[in-house]
Amino acid sequence: MDSGRDFLTLHGLQDDEDLQALLKGSQLLKVKSSSWRRERFYKLQEDCKTIWQESRKVMRTPESQLFSIEDIQEDQRNTLDLIAPSPADAQHWVLGLRKIIHHSGSMDQRQKLRHWIHSCLRKADKNKDNKMSFKELQNFLKELNIQVDDSYARKIFRECDRSQTDSLEDEEIEAFYKMLTQRVEIDRTFAEAAGSGETLSVDQLVTFLQHQQREEAAGPALALSLIERYEPSETAKAQRQMTKDGFLMYLLSADGSAFSLAHRRVYQDMGQPLSHYLVSSSHNTYLLEDQLAGPSSTEAYIRALCKGCRCLELDCWDGPNQEPIIYHGYTFTSKILFCDVLRAIRDYAFKASPYPVILSLENHCTLEQQRVMARHLQAILGPMLLNRQLDGVTNSLPSPEQLKGKILLKGKKLGGLLPPGGEGGPEAAVVSDEDEAAEMEDEAVRSRVQHKPKEDKLRLAQELSDMVIYCKSIHFEGFASPGTPGQAFYEMASFSENRALRLLQESGNGFVRHNVGHLSRIYPAGWRTDSSNYSPVEMWNGGCQIVALNFQTPGPEMDVYQGRFQDNGACGYVLKPAFLRDPNATFNPRALAQGPWWARKRLNIRVISGQQLPKVNKNKNSIVDPKVTVEIHGVSRDVASRQTAVITNNGFNPWWDTEFAFEVVVPDLALVRFLVEDYDASSKNDFIGQSTIPLNSLKQGYRHVHLLSKNGDQHPSATLFVKISLQE
């Protein structure tokens, strides 16, 4: 079975000249530094999945000369730099690889499965004769992350070796793969729906969609569209029926995903004031690693924007040659140019979402360099920069819809919404400094940062001040009380996580009401110099919008963050529930009482099985021992966690069939996290994959949960098969 030819034919690329050039291969110059350059021969393999490089190294094994195209990502840190002999050759490689990556992304689950099986087959076929001996077959199973009892493997091997050559080839490998990938739980679910029949009729599918999947739109139209989309058999399609293959394709598709397909697009009202939305926000966006000595990079801004982030942070300081720089002040993090960061933001701001980007400026520059900053902002961002009030928006914040395609500045400002003193206002004035570095109250931290002067006054240039419109930074003076004017709608305060938690504890409802009409920004405590994160959930429960996390640090906090913002088309803005947008709200996340938010639900989750969990330990003989944890995040009363048993030595198709029941009282604030780990008795469990889904985006019925890697990228084919029900 030739997967490469399949791939080209499937996507109509068999005569594509870029791919033909890659299949022929060419000499390219590999560059590691200005002094290290070597010529190498690179060639796309027939499978259209791997690239072979011919090296002069004598000790090289055949596998070490192959690398997978799936490993090529736009924003990876390890780069392979190659120079082509001509622009035409370079073009073939760039366009050819783009086509393969694009079409791989558009493959359905079954094509991905075949593709994945092929890459494992290729690695296992040591002598490259396209046949599988029993020993190679055992290697193949290890690549698939499956431990099969030798006698069982031998039995399947003999059943499939119809030619009796003591090796499997072509159709025999296909038959072996079929026996291996048979899914009993799908057979069982299909039989429940189809009764004794071999196929599902439209009526049977409608019944399944109504009673099991709880699809609101269940009816003949939906059933027929699913048959049209997922049924591979043309005969069955013509008879308006769905086979078991089509049923599996549907369950593995976006329509059968545990995350609601309808929530993969923007479906919420985007016309409300900015303060009514949670906003995907990053802290010290320029950092790739820790807060004290790690690298700063424009790459970090691009990564955050590509993940849907809508609020970025820029710490600006005087640089050489009158060019402002960005770095973490008083530390040893590396420095980047302010103008380079603005160019990266301009180029990537609206690739993932059309809704506004807020630049949170922490300004430590002298007047001269502030004026340079203002010039760069105007020249580089041009019409994207919002530098004047929107018509008619004078007493509440504008909406994401009104600000589409716009970049807003958050920073210090002289005077109110209108520039002070008309045209001939002052050229500069003194404002209080807003400096997170000043929050480094921890002695151990202070001893590791450079000497910081105790100065909290800053002279602010009028040109820069005038560019701040709706996000004027102020020091928080307390929540408004009757008879006091309180904060203007365009003024916003920043709180360290500890101060925010204290305010939530002391006056939870006051904070909720404040956040109805004002933006609040929360940032990590000063002691988190390792760039660790705090839980964003408590801040969201209090209605805080700009909850800034270290996007560069993977972990449960970022998992939950990405899960929350996967909602509403991953556009970076999620509308808060009605009880967090009501100026007279009585909701207090720290002292729950009855109210419109209280809607007790019983959530049942049956974790049935897992599919193709990736190997964590690169050791050839290591197979994973997976266990699943289901967590509920939300108000403290709803927080819960349950675990399955450990399945030993099977990452390919582990089977748990374990049911958990949870009670949730504030469903609007709840998220469900599915975590899969490789159990280790002697040390910390290894992370395999996870998926976090807001409860309101969780679909009922038989569903696949598509797992993400530690960095939040989709695993090609790792899933959990679950059954979900939600009852009043």
What layout of secondary structure does this protein have?
Blueprint: H1 3-10, H2 17-24, E1 26-31, E2 37-44, E3 50-54, E4 66-68, E5 81-83, H3 87-105, H4 109-124, H5 134-143, H6 150-160, H7 171-181, H8 184-194, H9 202-211, H10 220-230, H11 234-238, H12 244-252, E6 277-282, H13 298-306, E7 311-317, E8 325-326, E9 336-337, H14 338-348, E10 357-363, H15 367-381, E11 407-411, E12 428-432, H16 443-446, E13 457-461, H17 462-465, E14 471-473, E15 491-496, H18 497-517, E16 520-523, H19 537-541, E17 546-549, H20 556-564, E18 573-575, E19 601-611, E20 626-633, E21 640-643, E22 655-664, E23 671-678, E24 686-694, E25 701-708, E26 714-727
Parallel strand pairs: 6-17, 7-10, 10-11, 11-14, 14-15, 15-16, 16-17
Antiparallel strand pairs: 1-2, 1-5, 2-3, 3-4, 6-18, 7-8, 8-9, 12-13, 19-22, 19-26, 20-21, 20-23, 23-24, 25-26
Helix pairs in contact: 2-3, 4-5, 9-10, 10-12, 13-14, 14-15
Cofactor: Ca(2+)
Domain EF-hand: 112-147
Domain PI-PLC Y-box: 464-581
Radius of gyration: 29 Å
Class from secondary-structure proportions: alpha/beta
How much beta, percentage-wise? 15-25%
* Measured distance between first and last alpha carbons: 51 Å
- Give the overall silhouette: globular
Instruction: Point out poorly predicted stretches.
Output: 437-444
Number of strands: 26
Tally of DSSP helical segments: 20
- Helicity level: 25-40%
Number of domains: 5
Order of strands, widest sheet: 9-8-7-10-11-14-15-16-17-6-18
CATH homologous superfamily name of the largest domain?
Phosphatidylinositol (PI) phosphodiesterase
CATH topology of the largest domain: TIM Barrel
For the record, the CATH architecture of the largest domain stands as Alpha-Beta Barrel
Write down the overall mean pLDDT: 88
Largest β-sheet summary: 11 strands, mixed
Please write the CATH class name of the largest domain: Alpha Beta
Binding site for Ca(2+) 3: 284, 313, 315, 362
GO molecular function, one term: calcium ion binding
Binding site for Ca(2+) 4: 623, 625, 649
Domain EF-hand: 112-147
